[in-house]
User: What shape does this take?
Amino acid sequence: MIYGMDTNQNIHNLAEELNKTLDGCIAGRFLSDLGKRIYFPKGIITQSAEAKKLGKNANATIGTAVNNGEPMMLSSIKKYMPGLTPAESVSYAPTEGNPALREMWKKFILEKNPSLTGKNFSLPVLVPGLTAGISFLSDLFLDTTSPLLTADPYWENYSLIVEARRNSRIHTFVMFEDGKFSIKNFKKAVEEEAKTGKIRLLLNFPQNPSGYTPYKEEADSICAVLTEAAENADIMVWCDDAYFGLNYEQGINSESLFAKLAAAHERILAVKIDGPTKEDYAWGLRTGFVTFVSKGMSAPHYDAIIKKMMGLIRSSVSCAATESQSIILKAFDDPSTEKEKEAFKEILRERYRLAKKSVEAHSGSRVIKALPFNSGYFMCLRCIGVDSETLRQELLNKHGIGTVAIDEHHLRIAFSSVDSGKIEYLYDTIYKTAEELAEK
Assistant: This one.
């Protein structure tokens, strides 16, 4: 007999407690098999947290080496982190993340999405990068019986996470028609998924690879389609907001769909995956957040789903890097941060303008056509008269230009990583090479 385990269902009693809390709640109705089994143990981490508060005389819980109340730290490491204390750099962070950073990020979400004011949403859970956040959500909510709907084209890592890792399936709708977001295609796909009684949807804006964010009227239409579908189905929407705020045109929807869906319907659960990775130019620090909101969820529901997220974190990476969290927290308090971010955004905006100008100059091409783009880091070319991988190889081997073939039809260009002075040359070469290949 394994004590603390329900041997009939192979579900730990702590998982069962969380499942009972979520019973009847929209988040509970979406749990995968793993989602039902996962829990956060009352083991070392929980007991260490208690000892940190109450163990004033001696704390013999956590597996760190401490001297005079501070974690031991090699001088060779400390000299490269002169602004951080040992506790801010080499000690373990809480599984769910630095509490001050979590609170600060929730404040930022409210500031950037004012329509969330007065809405009840969870405290963000800190994860080691946005990819990890999507992976944990897949663990929690996807299995062999639960497909995920997203736009075509889509970031190839979604397939690796959802299909290869979780053995689920990706269903798609063609994102663009007549040069704009296709509400018709989206509505048709949502209605088809609704026949199963559950819709699992991932929307990524600004989108990777297309670099597109819906305009306000398009965002309103997306939410209207989902609200209507919620009359007959449970809906979960993952809002992959990796490039949030990097918009370059007037009229683009300025808030996350997460905010628009927060109080839309009791049968809609929205999840925001975001963080400083792209928004704050901190790619390698690998720090992201996962936040939940639903009109049908209360504080105990949020607490239970966060504990399940913590169980997934604890059972995989244990916790995110402490020094990354400490650096980001300090950076947010630095008065120079916002000014520098605006300067960086202006550089990206100029590269976007140059990319747009180059695409318009080649709009007559019958071999490659640009998908609509207005935001983010990328834009995407649809290859009509040439295979995208063939074009990629020719650009790389003949011209020393690196691009990404998303699939056989789409070539992604990251204008964010190309200096402004090289953008015209970049696009001229791409179009010329594509035309030459098509003539062969």
Q: What stands out?
A: The chain has 18 helices and 17 strands. The longest strand covers residues 198-204. Residues 256 and 264 are 14 Å apart (CA to CA).
